[in-house]
Amino acid sequence: MGCCFSKKSRRKSPQKDSSLPAGDESATGNDLPETNNTALGSNSNQEATKQYSWDKREKVDPKDFMLTGLKNETVGRLPGKLNGQQFVIQDCENCNIYVLDHSATITIDDCVNCRIMLGPVKGSVFFRDCKDIKCVVACQQFRTRDCKKMDVFLCCATQPIIESSTGMKFGCFQYYYPELAFHFKDAGLSIFNNNWSNIHDFTPVSGETNWSLLPEDAVVLEYVPLPDPESDFKSVRISTEANRSIVPLTKGGRRTESEESCLFVFFAGDYTTANARKLIDEATTKGFVLIQTKEVSMRPEDVNRVFQNNAESLTEWITQGPVVALELNGDGVVEACRSIANEMFNGTKLFVSESKNTSSRDVDNFFNFADMQMGL
User: Fold this and answer.
1) According to the Swiss-Prot or TrEMBL entry, at which residues is a lipid covalently attached (S-palmitoyl cysteine) (predicted)?
2) Number of other CB atoms surrounding residue 105 within 10 Å
3) Is 373 annotated as a binding residue?
4) Is 338 labeled as ligand-binding?
5) Residue 126 annotated in ligand binding
6) Which of residues 27 and 207 earns the better pLDDT score?
7) CA distance linking residue 145 with residue 163, whole number of Å
8) Is 143 annotated as a binding residue?
9) Is 289 within 8 Å of 328 (Cβ atoms)?
10) What is the C-alpha separation between 27 and 40, in angstroms, rounded?
11) Which of 1, 193, 278, 284 has the most beta carbons within 10 angstroms of its beta carbon?
12) 124 is in an annotated binding site
């Protein structure tokens, strides 16, 4: 980064200026700050008080953005302490770590037997040389290298990558604290774009499986407990119940029990997220399963390709913003979703599969398009 230097004043010093009255100390500028004792008049005073952007920048202590060499402690950062800065965790052992704020990137190095919760990360989360880690993570990119035995409840906008790592297990992100929804927004992450089960093993070993999925009934608190009641985090209202999680709980890559799925799409509006949540609550109450969700922008040509015969009536709706799509699964799900749409979302801009004969095609068309859009 280059530096900017201001030009030195070429004015004569007051002591050498013959125009100044002898003995008149008030005219020499001796009462001005020492660094400006050559400056005279009102213009000089303005120069003395002028501030540049780098002068106004808040001073940052690197120690506030790292946790290093800790053992048997409950530590982390409360909401509002990071505000989008980078963060580093290294050389920690048997610690409970709670980073309850949004950040730019987070690296975790050489940690052993730790429980970690990371609030939304705008960029990447990178674990290196860690073992026996249990964590809850929301991020744009997730990577591990040279790690062993990690249990991860994940929300990741892109395909998670493991490298030279073994004993890796993944589940869907389930977490809530009051500021979490705002932190997702500040980090530029959508709660509907979660590829937690679509893992890419960069260094596969023939005949061995380096990663798998956590049990479907895995309970977050059995992996990452709530903060100690005596810790600094006792005032934060945390919940790991699936129905309170900011990120919808999806089945992901697990095998479905029914061959019938339904595509339900909400077009941009004031209540898109709230409507999607209402649908999820209603459908799961009826026994149906949420497989996957996506939030993506569409162009007119995309609408034609994805929705085909229904495209003409939908094209004008995509101009307001991204669409939110959900795949729901279960016997009779198409008929149930159409009934829910009529009863709960009458007048709302949406698309629902017309019949179970075409619903599988609807699901494939949309989510294949969405994966291409997101580079998956």
Assistant:
1) 3
2) 17
3) no
4) no
5) no
6) 207
7) 5
8) yes
9) yes
10) 8
11) 193
12) yes
